[in-house]
């Protein structure tokens, strides 16, 4: 993997853009097929959990595609997440999506932007909303402006949380028609970014799509998030922590299935459309935690209750029938327990990847009584 610190010098713009990329030219609606065939994609946030898994997915399945990752490497970004990928196909530019001058140098020559970069953790947004507004709202606006100027196709990665929550006993699920009702500073900032994308489509004719996905799990997820926090706590001899009553429901999807859905939407989705991504993975937090404890050989009550998250969303549930019907997408990981077992194995075998951030994360949680 080629690694470029974008802020070092203007000359980096040359490496960033890559002569090969320019030579291949702008792509690419395959003749008459209606399929968009990008050759050079810019992936923001590609050193984070879902972005890195997407970069790996593209490198594995689409060897003709060159990926430039643009990532600020915040506490949540780690270049190790994309280590080992071929240098000729994956290039890392370290920089901020809010930096308009940097975008002027990086964006030209790409035929699509897939925008994952965000501040992504609800608890952090409750403690300090400001970075969320800056990266998720201002950063998205800067990228949209660059995409507009250079006529680059845009895919925006968003979340089901923009729709607020559902009652535990409500059979309803979120669809593309659900009203926006975000609860936390994080989800409000993501909702704002969705609205910006829609406005750029309608007002400026930007070629953009949006996807709103449910809770992801899998390798490379930061230890602040529910599943890796509990797994790594057990590995470190710390009792897992369950917020509130533990009855809150999340709709789990393996991150690889999120990647395949994003690829389908990017290449075959209709411009201006929103697609919900989910894999029928509804489970209460306490059920997930008990499954983790069982799979790791612990008693099912070996955890502590903590105070609840303020404004804690009760239930998320996705109706992904538009994605199934229009694009024929289906998840590959349909057995949550076996996906969870593989995730436990990954964290067990990659202690060096998470151990430093574990200590810092638990100190932060302890200070908040969580
Ligand atoms: P993450 O926190 O693991 O990664 C975010 C990445 O963005 C990091 O690499 C970070 O360094 C980078 N970044 C942050 N601010 C930046 C900036 N200003 N400029 C450039 N890079 C910056 O997040 P994640 O869980 O991988 O989520 C990725 C995207 O998917 C987000 O947009 C999130 O809203 C969305 N999403 C996440 C989930 C989930 O379950 N985690 C579900 C649905 C949607
Ligand atoms: O220690 C914990 N104990 C606990 O009970 C943690 C970290 C979380 N929880 C609960 C809170 C939630 O109900 O587990 C659930 C999942 O929590 P998170 O992993 O923080 O995820 P969530 O808040 O649901 O948001 C996630 O899915 C949607 C991602 O972090 C978002 O980026 C995405 O948009």
Short summary:
The chain has 370 residues and is α/β, with parallel strands linked by helices.
Question: What does this 3D model show about the protein?
Answer:
The chain has a single domain (2-367), classed as NAD(P)-binding Rossmann-like Domain (Rossmann fold, 3-Layer(aba) Sandwich). Helix content is 41%, strand content 15%. The protein has 13 helices and 14 strands. It has helices at residues 12-17, 19-24, 49-61, 100-106, 122-127, 130-149, 185-204, 226-236, 255-268, 285-295, 321-327, 336-349, 351-367; strands spanning 2-5, 40-44, 66-71, 90-94, 112-115, 153-159, 208-213, 216-217, 241-243, 249-251, 253-254, 274-277, 282-284, 304-306. An 8-stranded parallel beta sheet has the order 1-4-3-2-5-6-7-12, with helices on both faces. A two-stranded parallel sheet has the order 8-11. A two-stranded parallel sheet has the order 9-14. Strand 6 (153-159), helix 7 and strand 7 (208-213) form a beta-alpha-beta unit. The chain starts with a strand and ends with a helix. It binds nicotinamide-adenine-dinucleotide and thymidine-5'-diphospho-beta-D-xylose.
Question: Which percent bin holds the helix content?
Answer: 40-55%
Q: What composes the largest sheet? A: 8 strands, parallel
CATH homologous superfamily annotation: NAD(P)-binding Rossmann-like Domain
Q: Give the strand content.
A: 15-25%
Give me the secondary-structure category.
Answer: alpha/beta
List of distinct ligands in this structure: nicotinamide-adenine-dinucleotide, thymidine-5'-diphospho-beta-D-xylose
Q: Give the overall form.
A: globular
Instruction: Name the helix and strand elements from N-terminus to C-terminus, one letter apiece.
Output: EHHEHEEHEHHEHEEHEEEHEEHEHHH
Which CATH architecture would you pick?
3-Layer(aba) Sandwich
Q: How many domains comprise the coordinates?
A: 1
Secondary structure tally, helices: 13
State the separation between the terminal residues, measured CA to CA: 38 Å
Number of strands: 14
Q: Compute the average pLDDT.
A: 93
Spatial ordering of strands, largest sheet: 1-4-3-2-5-6-7-12
Quickly name the level 1 CATH class. Alpha Beta
CATH fold node name: Rossmann fold
Uncertain ranges: 5-27
Radius of gyration: 20 Å
């Amino acid at each position: 993997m080629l690694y470029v610190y974008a802020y070092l010098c203007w000359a980096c713009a040359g490496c960033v853009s890559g002569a090969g990329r320019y030579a291949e030219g702008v792509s690419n609606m395959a003749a008459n097929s209606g399929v968009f065939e990008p050759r050079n994609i810019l992936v923001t946030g590609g050193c984070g959990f879902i972005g890195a898994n997407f970069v790996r997915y593209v490198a594995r399945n689409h060897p003709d595609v060159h990926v430039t990752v643009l990532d600020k490497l915040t506490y949540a970004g780690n270049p190790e997440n994309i280590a080992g990928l071929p240098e000729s196909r994956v290039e890392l530019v370290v920089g901020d999506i809010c930096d308009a001058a940097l975008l002027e140098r990086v964006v030209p020559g790409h035929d699509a932007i897939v925008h994952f970069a965000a501040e992504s953790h609800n608890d952090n947004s409750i403690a300090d909303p400001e970075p969320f507004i800056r990266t998720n709202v201002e950063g998205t606006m800067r990228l949209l402006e660059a995409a507009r100027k250079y006529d680059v196709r845009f895919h925006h990665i968003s979340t089901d949380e923009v729709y607020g929550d559902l009652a535990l006993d409500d059979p309803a699920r979120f669809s593309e028609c659900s009203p926006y009702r975000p609860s936390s500073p994080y989800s409000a900032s993501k909702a704002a970014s969705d609205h910006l994308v829609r406005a750029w489509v309608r007002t400026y004719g930007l070629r953009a799509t949006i996807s709103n996905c449910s809770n992801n799990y899998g390798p490379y997820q930061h230890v602040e998030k529910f599943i890796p926090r509990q797994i790594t706590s057990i590995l470190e001899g710390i009792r897992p922590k369950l917020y509130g009553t533990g009855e809150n429901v999340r709709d789990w999807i393996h991150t690889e299935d999120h990647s395949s859905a994003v690829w389908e939407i990017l290449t075959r989705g209709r411009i201006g459309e929103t697609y919900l991504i989910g894999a029928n993975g509804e489970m209460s937090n306490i059920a997930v935690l008990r499954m983790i404890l069982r799979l790791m050989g612990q008693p099912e009550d070996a955890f502590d209750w903590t105070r609840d998250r303020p404004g804690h969303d009760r239930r998320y549930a996705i109706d992904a029938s538009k994605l199934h019907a229009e694009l024929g997408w289906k998840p590959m990981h349909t057995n949550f327990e076996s996906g969870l077992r593989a995730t436990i194995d990954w964290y067990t075998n990659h202690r060096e990847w998470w151990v430093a951030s574990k200590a810092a994360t638990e100190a932060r949680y302890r200070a908040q009584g969580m």
